[in-house]
Structures are given as structure tokens and as C-alpha cells.
């Protein structure tokens, strides 16, 4: 399934820069960055649960926020992109 993750980490709070870097690193393990604080992840249900646990352990719920949009398996019909596309097709063939 495709999961869209967005986050807002307060960098003015104590440890904010560290939390911001940690959230981005966790998201990069599961998917690809499509905007500054937006990641697309093609993952299964187990991976989604693990991702959520890692992210929840990394934020301060009093000043940070996470949003998860589960677009399902038929996501190609639900996503439209206009403009510059620097993203890699994560389900396409990997060429070295």
C-alpha cells in the first residue's frame, strides 16, 4: 500500500533539530522524500506499524505532529503530479 507521511517538527523547542533529522531518517528507511516534510512509502501493514512506532518514539507530541494518509494498493489512480518530477519510481527496475 502507499502511505503518504507528512510531519511538522518544532525546531525552536529543545532538541527540535535532532528530532527533525531523526524523523527524516526514519522516513527515508521506508520510502522517498517528495517534498521537504513529505514522504511516499510503498509498504505492507507490518512495515506501516513498525514505521508508526519508530516515528511516535521520535517526536514530542506536545509540539510536533505527524499525519499518515493510507492510499492503499490502487494508489496510482489516486496520485496526480504536475511540475518538476525529481522522484524515483520506487516500484520500477533498479539500474546501476
UniProtKB/TrEMBL annotation:
Cofactor list: Mg(2+)
Keyword annotations: Antiviral defense, Endonuclease, Hydrolase, Magnesium, Metal-binding, Nuclease
Residues that bind Mg(2+): 8
GO molecular function: hydrolase activity; metal ion binding; RNA endonuclease activity
Keyword match Nuclease: yes
InterPro entries: CRISPR_associated_Cas2, Virulence_VapD/CRISPR_Cas2
Record-level GO BP terms: defense response to virus; maintenance of CRISPR repeat elements
Function, as annotated: CRISPR (clustered regularly interspaced short palindromic repeat), is an adaptive immune system that provides protection against mobile genetic elements (viruses, transposable elements and conjugative plasmids). CRISPR clusters contain sequences complementary to antecedent mobile elements and target invading nucleic acids. CRISPR clusters are transcribed and processed into CRISPR RNA (crRNA). Functions as a ssRNA-specific endoribonuclease. Involved in the integration of spacer DNA into the CRISPR cassette.
Family, per entry: Belongs to the CRISPR-associated endoribonuclease Cas2 protein family.
SUBUNIT field: Homodimer, forms a heterotetramer with a Cas1 homodimer.
Protein name, as recorded: CRISPR-associated endoribonuclease Cas2
Organism: Priestia koreensis
Gene: cas2
